[in-house]
User: Fold these one by one.
Assistant:
Number 1:
Amino acid sequence: MTAPISSAPNFTKTATSTSVQFAAPQSIADTGLPASVIQDLALKIIYFAGEIPAHAVAEEMRLPHNNIVENVLSFLVKEEFCQITGAQGYSERAYRYTVTTKGSVKAQELLARNQYAGPAPVPLDVYNQVVRQQAIGSVAVRQDSIRNAFNDIVISDAMLRRVGPAVNSARSIFLYGPPGNGKTTIAERMSRLLGGTIYLPHAIYADGQIIRLYDQINHRALEEPQRSGTTGDLARRDQRWVLCQRPFIVVGGELTLETLDLIFDPISKTYEAPYQMKANCGMFLIDDFGRQQLRPQDLLNRWIVPLEKRYDFLTLQTGKKIEVPFDVLIVFSTNLEPRDLVDEAFLRRIRYKINVPNPSWDEYRTIFQRNCAQRHVPYDEEMFKYLVLEHYVKVKREPKSVHPRDLLDQILDIARYMQKEPRLEKELLDAAVDAYFVKF
């Protein structure tokens, strides 16, 4: 079979992006799916719509009308599952379809198996192939370009020298250190280094099951993914794939073992892809690691093979396991002491460990100055020295990168209440410190 989507897609790689050209399938065979899957999908779409024109069925399925949807609709009419009720034009694309009594019975049987009635899925083997060809390992971070990704935050050159190679590894990173120093912010900037675009399918067909992958919450589409492109360039591309930025998915305390496997919806009888699968070809940040409902050791046991082998096994309701790529830059971020969280076996499998310490006083001053400028509060060096000596040195308080932002926000709130201009003065600084820090 010479189908463009069933064989290797045409890729053009650069240092920061991957361009993929998917020719629109020209026949049912080109989709890589059994004809019955497309026929059943079309019948469910018509059943839900009540009455629908042929071109709208094609748009819902993200498949070309010519040679595919028109043949599917002809089959449904021939088998008396559907009938033509009229037309709003002269072409077959304008024919309107509705289900017959026989078709209604058939549609209800299909819905009892699964209620999916959206874009046609892509075969699992094709998805796996595309992920490997869009791998984050193709991204190269270089010393002369890394500063641009971090130009809006204060970060030392020493830290950048650790971050760059860690991102290049495309493996796993452990960010640790005291709270309030920007570990999450650093991880967000790391995602900028990945850059580029990838293609994600709306859904995947695996062993007779439907797995939803693309979602508007976790993925940022760079084109309209809803019914786009019945004409023009998009019509010439397989619209079952959505052009997106490389994923950057963040989870915190809500992470459980169940969300790391296929999530079965007993009502729709379809599956939702787990976080790490949605993050393929991108970054997956586990924030506040150690504060999840699952134990760190349980996560290690779950990912011991994926972290080393770069593939994962997911389980269907039937008990069958399917293999998918694990092409994810995993970032663990924690305020807790690493040795209290995980054992040496876990840390050994994490490629890079990066400590994010408290800022130096020079860095703290720069952060304070930047935050003053952002909030239009005039910076005063003498008042800054007063803040440091009175409220840090005397009370043995350590500076945190987040303090300038929060203290200045306190000053803005207090000044507004006192009906005075926000500025660095003893009265406002003392009031901000008193309101912000807890006295032990």
Number 2:
Amino acid sequence: MIKLENVTKVYQMGEIAVNALNGITLSVAKGEMLAIIGASGSGKSTLLNILGCLDKPTSGSYLFEGIDVGRLNDNQLAEMRNRKFGFVFQQFNLLPRATALYNVELPLVYSNVYHRRERAVEALEWVGLAGRANHKPTELSGGEQQRVAIARALVNNPSFILADEPTGNLDSKSTNDIMAVFQRLNREGRTVVIITHEADIASQAQRTIRLCDGRIADR
């Protein structure tokens, strides 16, 4: 499904070049659940941004379902992100004044999709929050907010879920609940990649790679 070959990412900070990724070669199979673990600054989030077409490599190649991502223009990249990927972040990134239902519906508004409300309701039902649809984020627990964020990631029915420290702000019970959701997503056939610095979270994936200083240190 995914193949990275000798991918680098260099950020220019004034006159200083920062090497965030240094020659990453990685394949992710369709239907796999992969954890990427490493310390802060190891390149985990940079790698996730490249996998999700949020950023482009400085050099190297990235094939997604046989498509050379480096040859896509900005509009094509945006379309791929919207159709193929669902993103879940540590900070939830919910609109604070909007209901859970509207937060989930929002990607469909941008896509100009019909039957948005019905699809958003179905996504909330899938994560067990149908009864909280009209609540705002401040009226929800951290675990509930993250489940809303997962429902939002699912509403376009993506094949690939990317999660960046999705349990970083949660207590242990909520963490277990969220990981159970990711496990269920994977059992239903979606490819799941989770960025984490916690070994117990990584251990729940089928495979783990460890980054250090922008390189794969262990796989």
Number 3:
Amino acid sequence: MNSRERVVKAMRRQLTDRVPFDFALGFSPYQLEQFRRRSGQDSPEDYFGADARGVNIGPTRLHTDFSRYVRRDELPANGYIDEWGEGHIPTSSDDVYHSHLEGYIHPMRHLRRVQDVLDYPLPDIEAEYRYEHLPADIHFIQETRGLAAVAWMACTIFEVAWHLRSMEALLMDFIDNQDFAAALLDRITAKRIIQAQRYAEMKPDVILLGDDVATQRGMLMSAQMWRRWLKPRLARIIHAIRTVNPTTLIFYHTDGDGTAIVPDLIEIGVDILNPVQPECMDIYALKRQYGHVLSFWGLLGTQSVMPFGTPAEVRADVRCKIEVVGKGGGLLLAPTHMVEPEVPWENIVAFVETVKATQPPGFGF
């Protein structure tokens, strides 16, 4: 069984020779530097033999002038403006413990009118040149290397919207400037529907959607507010994928405790939930309640066992999750976020070695 078969079968809740794994958001800059020093290689995924690889659209060729929204003098020397017009303020390159984190300047923070939303220049996600490389990339991943191909469309709606608007302003818009909020979300959703359709045409194994809509204490907004503003738009994106390719696996990411909306996600067609943080979600209860219709990708705590456990504790945690959550399929193990600087090398090795050595319950019977 190759990696592609392993991922697809596991995410369809079928038995596999072992539980598949990957490294979620990859290694932090510090960890990547340490990995290169230890291994002499550039790719942790290749070195450790992870089962999935991501693909994404190509960079834009537009050179949009966002100066009316973000002034260059608002940014530090190492800052930049992305294709959405958001200003990024990276942390200092010598701050190894936080160098992948950023501050933001929200380009729509002072806007108020619906016409302001309609006039705002969004990126050319629909442009054909941005997809030209994907058929060859996906074929190489799937057929040449035998890996699962995951098409990335993270920060699908909500995170793009609040990055543009600011979280405080967008949540207030949901209450007192609703036409503005609807216009902004609808424009983003229309772009994402096109991207989703183009991805589905190219037949990756998984299409990755997601927005962080929860904190570790529960939903970031009420579940009712999520159902009004985000659920129907997410459903339209998933419907667009299913219309083109009904067999594509739909992956949904939200950090934090999103338990309140899990039934809604299943209802609109989500197949895979990520990252399922063990520090704030009852992963075993989720398996009991929804494991017949939902698969789980993640589950290894990047705030607990991975940075602070011993290798023996990592091995025990991995075996427990395989035994319980991996029963009957439905599990891909990964850190629940980036592999941060505090994670010992020995714990990374313990995670990988244990996954590879442990057969899921029921295999061979």
Number 4:
Amino acid sequence: MTTPPPPPAPDNSVLSLAEAVRRGDRRALARAITLIESTRPDHRARADALLQALLPYSGNSVRVGISGVPGVGKSTFIEAFGLHVIGLGHKVAVLAIDPSSQRTGGSILGDKTRMVDLSREPAAFIRPSPAGSTLGGVARRTREAMLVCEAAGFDVIVVETVGVGQSETAVADMVDLFLLLLLPGGGDELQGIKKGIVELADLLVVNKADGDLAATARHTVADYRHALMLLRHEADWIVPVLSCSAIGKQGIDRVWATIGEHRALMERSGARARRRAEQARAWLWSEIRESLLEAFRTHPGLRADLPAVEASVGAGEAVPAAAARALLDRFLGRAPDRKA
């Protein structure tokens, strides 16, 4: 049986940073996440050593992923939710993923400015990160950032996804509970109930259930409850559909109580341990895929030829599948299969 390579030995600077993170030093926590998000090879080695040092002190939090379409009020909800949970004696870390421009690669990273009251709380930590080229509404290093926050003593971790629609399913592979925020008025959304993001959710919450939208929100809750009866449920967990008003701070207590009920049930059935084990395996393969693609794009024997191959494919002069196989053969150093 092949065993994984030994973890990198941390140097004194990494050990000092790890100790500062464990003490709850905010600046150290921010530096640690910056380090693990860096793409420099020398930083990657130090980040791996840091994560190995902090790993024994992670894993004890409630991990909640929150997604929803733009305009559903994710930031307002997270702020109200975070303030409520802090009032109960918890420490909350929010990892907010912002969309990155496909042209410039830049991100606004404005989530912290939309959670002013929460950002002032000593028991809260808000970290916006760019999604970069990673699909699924999260950043490539979100999993590592969760571990660092847990080691720093935060016992509730909230991952806020980009919020671009049905494709945001990657967050379900890294949290204990996936919460989907909905707008009052189901309409066409119910047509896709059997697939995509709704099917993965552990909890649905209709936000903005106040004022003129209160009655519409009640109808939306009823519609989703009926629709969800057609879907499978994990470990006897029947996905609840709740309503709340984040701006009015109504119904937030029920959301937190339901998260607690879910965790208790998952722990009793063993589903929580199984889910986290499966998530660790998913993390492994995700890192393999990302690292292989990065190595492929930067391979010295291919890098100069990639633009010409892409141009040839784009002009219809080459079959994409055949061009891809030829590049992979060169990347792997193997002779092309002449029988194909």
